[in-house]
Structure formats: structure tokens, C-alpha cells
Amino acid sequence: MKTLIIVGHPTPDSSATQQFLKAAVQDLSGVKWHELASVKGNFVANEERQLLQKSSRVVLQFPLYWYNVPDLLKRWQDQVFTDINQVSLAGKELGIVVNVGKAVQEFRLGGTVGFSLSGLLSPLAAWAKHFQMKLLPLFVIDRFEYQNLKQQQQLLIAYQQFLELPQPVTFAAQEAWFLDKLKAKVDLASGRQRQQLELIMQQLQEKTTKLADLQAVLRPIRKDDQIHGN
Amino acid sequence: MKTLIIVGHPTPDSSATQQFLKAAVQDLSGVKWHELASVKGNFVANEERQLLQKSSRVVLQFPLYWYNVPDLLKRWQDQVFTDINQVSLAGKELGIVVNVGKAVQEFRLGGTVGFSLSGLLSPLAAWAKHFQMKLLPLFVIDRFEYQNLKQQQQLLIAYQQFLELPQPVTFAAQEAWFLDKLKAKVDLASGRQRQQLELIMQQLQEKTTKLADLQAVLRPIRKDDQIHGN
């Protein structure tokens, strides 16, 4: 699977959020980072379309400006998709990574914004529907600048998984993904660091096995519950 | 009242719809037609803000591109409203005049678009809410190029009334508006044409009087109905 990230921030170099996400993508071999700001003036529609054709998952990534996509991303849409017969996106996945400067809770009914993010971004859903793309669950980054280190670490993992894992994401796939990443780190490490990482990996694998056992016990109970349950 | 029309079409000269609407505005003294395409490159934010300050009704007028505002209108929003403290729009009215290339009925649930125009344009509603503007009912132009002469005449009147009449619009206000316009035409006419227009005006006034009489009769009946009714 190839993931293409269309970065719609007009000045990504000045954005802490975009720089953080860019760093998160460095290690990911199947992911292409494509900044629209680098071809700001006029897009070469054909080049943009070729990039899209090569990808199986397209991610539109942008900050919410005036409750909508930034001008730059809209320009890309308006300029690249003029003759819609020139591009076939059917069956590809469309991900949306949006970061907001207002607390996410303000977007609910009665909040200071009062319009849901899913509603505000529905033009992109209509766009995905038009091209018969499969829309992935919205990925929202809630005020990156207020996040502490732990929240940022969680964001990093969630973001990488959003880019790499097949959808819909299962817990088992998340676990396997984590062990894979850890194994790659172990292979690169040496000495004391390697010993520590191997210990962590061993513990994680043991917990994974325990969890699998527990799930095996739970499954018949849940089945029983479904038959007799309320 | 002063109405400012922000024309967000990137090439209004090539748009039959925009040219039709532009002609409809020629006679209206309190309405300013402002094409964003004329200052395409970079907006002088201060000049744009001053135009807004002078108006009591702001109308955003644009074709729907990819289920959203055109790039040009978004650029205007992103460039002019950077420092939101520099502009006060509180209490002003915001009108939206949108023309669509797909049949309006396709925007309902289960239609080929499947997303409502009110939903797709909710970023503008959130924007209006942000600036404490009063949002007027959405004015939709359904595929202008398919409209026959009669439909275009109806559109012309509805559009002019949307720009000029106090909101919410009443039937009485629409009648008075129509008589005013007719009177202005009579004053300019002469000879046989003037006679004909005077006759039309006379008939319209008679009908208006009859209608007022009928409403006077209906009012107590409706009142009675409200008291005793189901």
C-alpha cells in the first residue's frame, strides 16, 4: 500500500504541527509527503494526477482555516480536477487529517463554534463520494501546541498507524504493527540499549499472548451472551 | 441600507449567470458590485475591510466548486480576515447567493450528491456566527443555463428583492417594492408606452387593495381559528 499525504498548509515550515507530522513520516517507507506550498503558484495538473494514481491511500492534511480547508488546498482541488475524466480515483481510500486551533469540544451543538467538524468538512465527503473513494474516519488533532509530551507520543503513534494500517483498524493489527516497529529498532541497536529493547519486546509479546488467551476465553462467553442476552 | 455583493467567481466575464446578475444590479442604487477577480493576486486587506464596514448587508455570491466555495473566495477569507480584531461585522446581515451546476434535488439525502447545500455551506454559517452576523436564508440558483425566459424573469425579481428588501421579506413589502419599481418605469416612459404602464400599475394597485380587503376579512377568522382551532 502506498500512502500519499497532500499537505495543504500554506507555510508548513512555520507550523509546529506540520513539522512534527513530517518527522513522524521520516521512517515510513510506503508514505510520500507532498507539500502543496512547494508548487504554490500553479499546479501542474498532470503531475498531481499521476501522484494520485500511484497511491492507494490519499491523505488530505491541513489546518482548519475559517471552518474550512485552506485556500491552498481548495486551489489544488479547483485547478487539478477541472476535467474529471482525466483522473480515476475509484476504490482509493481518502483520509482527512485536520488540526484545529479551537478545542474540539467547541464544535459540538451549543459550543462556541456550534458546527461539527464532520459537518464543516462535508464538502470533502461529497468530493470523495463523487470520485467513489472510500472515506476513512476523520483524524483530528486537537490544538497540538497545548499537548504535553505523552499526548504528542500518542499522537505520533496514532498518526503513523492512520497512514500505514489497513482500515478498519483492529486491535490485533495495532499490536502487530507495534511489535514490528520495535523489532526494527532492536535490529538497529547494540549493547545495553539492545538488551533493554529486547526486554521490552519480550514483555510486550508475553502480554500479547496473555491477551490472546483472555480473548479466547471471552469469545464463547460473548457468543453465549448474544444468544441468551438482552 | 447598503448592500455589498462580493462576487467570488474567478472569471465572472465568462459566466452567463454572473453577467445576468450583474445586469440585474445596474438599476439598484444602494447595491455595490465587487468582483474579487479584479484584485485576484493579493487583496489589500484594509480596502476590503473598509468596503465591508460601509455595508449593512454583505452578499457572498459564487458558483459551487467541488461542493464548496471557489478557491478565490476562500483566499479572500484567509487573506482579509487574518487579524480578526481589525474588523467588526457584528449585526450586519450575511446573504449567500450560490449557483449550482447540478439539479438542486440531487443535494438531498439519497441524491447523487447526497449532501444538502445548507450542510455543505455550513463553514460560512460558522463564519457568520463567529462575526455575529445575521445569516439570511440561502439564495440558490438552480442551473441558470437550463432556465427559460419566464424562470429568468422570476429569478431577476427574486434576486433584486433579496438584495434590497428588509428581511424577513413579507408579501406586503414585495408588493410595495414592485409598485415602486413600476412607478419609476412610468416616470421615465412617454406616449403609448406610458399609457400602458399606467394601466398595469392601476390594475396592480386595485388588486393590491382587494387583497388588503381580503386579508382584513381573513384576519379575524384566523384569529378565531387560533382560539378554537385544533
Automatic annotation (TrEMBL), chains A, B:
Q: What sequence ranges are listed for the domain Flavodoxin-like fold?
A: 1-160
> What molecular functions are annotated in GO for this chain?
electron transfer activity; FMN binding; NAD(P)H dehydrogenase (quinone) activity
Q: Which UniProt keywords apply?
A: Oxidoreductase
Q: Which InterPro entries match?
A: Flavodoxin_fold, Flavoprotein-like_sf, KefG/KefF
Keyword Oxidoreductase listed = yes
Top-level taxon of origin? Bacteria
SUPFAM superfamilies on file: Flavoproteins (SSF52218)
Q: What is this protein called?
A: Flavodoxin-like fold domain-containing protein
Please name the source species.
Liquorilactobacillus nagelii
